[in-house]
Amino acid sequence: MVPTLEQIEELHHKIAPSEEAYDLIHTHCVIVARIARMLAHRQNMLFARRCTLPKDAAELAAPSAEGAEAVLAGIEAGEGAAAGTGVSGESTARDLLAVPPSDGVTGGHVPPRLIDEHLVTIGGLLHDIGTYKVLKHDGTDGEPLKFAGKKYIKHGLLGYEYLLENGVDEEIAQFARNHTGVGLTRDDVIRQELPLPPADYVPVNLEQETVMVADKYNSKSLPAKFVTAESYTKRAARFGEENKRRWLELLDQYGVVDVRPLAKEYGMVIV
User: Fold this and answer.
1) Using the 8-state DSSP alphabet, how is residue 102 labeled?
2) In this structure, how many other beta carbons lie within 10 angstroms of the beta carbon of residue 68?
3) What does the pLDDT read at residue 41?
4) What CA–CA distance (Å, rounded) separates 65 from 41?
């Protein structure tokens, strides 16, 4: 099945060990779904604009070739568009779909095709559902929520398996499996000796890639916080120059999200 919004809520509640865990993880998924819609909407607007312009004019109207780092500099200087959607942090998933995406994305390049905005919303709402299974303290033992260290890397695969067990289509379940980092390859698993079966855990379509990118802008580390594109660039570099290069390529394609309005709306800090 492709789950409805009501079924997504049920899937979260079914696996959540406590209300505290639900609030943390479900809120993160809602935020990622919102950002994924923003990114997909921006890509679709670029695609539509390209299709309605003569070829030469389309080339001239394409986003600047200065690259992701120039866009980052503009965001840091406060030049990015960043209109909020007006949806509160306590909104339901249904509210999320009812409100158009904001315009808080700057830059980006024309995608090879239109991106399914509904599908990225569903994927965003489910991508981290396996995180409930990697909590060392899950809110039922009187201790603050805490993730289980090295086991955390398994949350994508555990979420994928949980969704399949509950009748969710393979295409949807893959949003959980294929969103870690900027694409976890078989070589990465082997080289880093990760506790995962050796395989590629990378997006297989644009919708999954959009959710993977959106996920980088919000962290569940307690307290939950928003992450700027610049901060994630530094984080990506810790895993090697190739990892950083891949992230910068994704920024160049999808544009840079200004997280300030969302951080204010949800009352979270920005790092």
Assistant:
1) -
2) 22
3) 95
4) 20
Q: Which of 218, 30, 253, 210 is nearest to 120 (CA)?
A: 210
| Alpha-carbon span 121 to 265, nearest angstrom | 19
d(CA 232, CA 174) in angstroms, rounded, equals 23
- Token pair belonging to 109: 């390049």
3-state secondary structure of 195: coil
pLDDT at residue 53, as a whole number: 56
Give the tokens for residue 216.
């980088």
| Closest-CA residue to 239 (of 195, 192, 170) | 192
Burial class (CB in 10 A: 0-12, 13-18, 19+), 90: exposed
Report whether the peptide linkage leading into residue 223 is cis, meaning its omega lies within 30 degrees of zero: yes
Domain count across the chain: 1
What was the pLDDT predicted at 91?
55
Q: Rounded to whole angstroms, how far apart are CA atoms 167 and 186?
A: 27
What is the pLDDT at residue 51?
73
Cα–Cα distance measured from residue 218 to residue 33, given in angstroms and rounded to the nearest whole number:
11
First vs last C-alpha separation in the chain:
37
3-class state of residue 158 by DSSP: helix
3-state SS class at 35:
helix
Q: What is the pLDDT of residue 259?
A: 96
Query: Mean pLDDT of successive 10-residue segments in the chain (271 residues)?
Result: 94 97 97 96 92 56 44 43 35 64 87 96 98 95 91 96 98 96 91 92 97 97 95 92 94 97 95 96
Handedness of CA 262, 154, 231, 213 (dihedral sign): negative
Q: Which domain holds residue 190?
A: 5-270
Rounded distance, CA 64 to CA 269, Å? 30
